Amino acid sequence: MVTVNEAFARLWPAVASLLSDGTARGYLVAWRRRVRPTFGTRELSELTPFDVELAFATWSGAVSTRKDAVAMLSALCRAALKARLIAANPCVGVEYRRLQSGDPTSRALSRHEVDRLLAVLPRDGCYRRFVLAMLYTGCRFGEVAGLRVADVDLEGLTIRVQRTASPGRHGEIVVGPTKGRRVRDVPMPEPFVPELLAAMEGKGDHDYLFTGPRGGFLSSGNLSRALDWHGVRDRVKTFPPGEPALHWHDLRHTAATHLFLANVPATDVQAIMGHSDLATTQRYADTRRDAARRGGAALTAYYAQSNGQLQGGESPAKSAADLGN
């Protein structure tokens, strides 16, 4: 019989070899904080889907964080299956309560809020350029950090996104493939061109575009501290109580939303954003709101042609003579 702790010690190198550095780092956090304290001394073969569901229900943290812990355990169990340590993966069949999906467009900045963002940023410099790169291209933070001069096509006004620079297992910056492991091209709007040219100045083709003041990689923490982001972001956009404050990833939501507002087809938005499926992209479309507006206009026209009751209020009283007619 093998405990979960013993299985981790034996199988983790094989599990980690299949993961990106960022995912492996997140899984190790999930192991230390949730999986090991809950299941470490348990016999791996005795775990059931209910055991996992119960742990998920009692773990603290956001739903996404707890799901990451289940994903980590499931990856370990898949390796254990291959090693013939267990007969079934106890994470298969685990059920989660269905939650209402969030609206990413509610996190996006309006054009007026974009103006506020520009106002709180420095007038020039590397920090401003990095933020505008996220806003105008829709790239993830690590994708912006991983852009090189050679990725820019000034004639076609596009940028090729083919790598990401993100924290590795020990906090070091690791350059690797994008989240979807696909190369894609993103548009370069005219307002961003001067910032891009400034970032390219004096650099060779293989130099990174959006570096810090000393030429190194920027992290989200360093950028936030440099801009006093936690102190100024509420001047850009606020959210209802209970919702998190404006985050760097919300600039990606902004780019996707604005592509739809600019009437870019959904399939093109999907390609630009690098979404793996069209359903993810459609969450940024305004089709539901447009349907409600069309429905309201149609109902208004319908009621205008109907009798008094449908128009609202009481029908006028009828006299005996009216009834006789």
Automatic annotation (TrEMBL):
<keyword id="KW-0238">DNA-binding</keyword>
<dbReference type="InterPro" id="IPR002104">
    <property type="entry name" value="Integrase_catalytic"/>
</dbReference>
<dbReference type="InterPro" id="IPR010998">
    <property type="entry name" value="Integrase_recombinase_N"/>
</dbReference>
<keyword id="KW-0229">DNA integration</keyword>
<protein>
    <submittedName>
        <fullName>Tyrosine-type recombinase/integrase</fullName>
    </submittedName>
</protein>
<dbReference type="Pfam" id="PF00589">
    <property type="entry name" value="Phage_integrase"/>
</dbReference>
<dbReference type="InterPro" id="IPR013762">
    <property type="entry name" value="Integrase-like_cat_sf"/>
</dbReference>
<keyword id="KW-0233">DNA recombination</keyword>
<feature type="domain" description="Tyr recombinase">
    <location>
        <begin position="104"/>
        <end position="299"/>
    </location>
</feature>
<dbReference type="InterPro" id="IPR011010">
    <property type="entry name" value="DNA_brk_join_enz"/>
</dbReference>
<dbReference type="InterPro" id="IPR050090">
    <property type="entry name" value="Tyrosine_recombinase_XerCD"/>
</dbReference>
<comment type="similarity">
    <text>Belongs to the 'phage' integrase family.</text>
</comment>
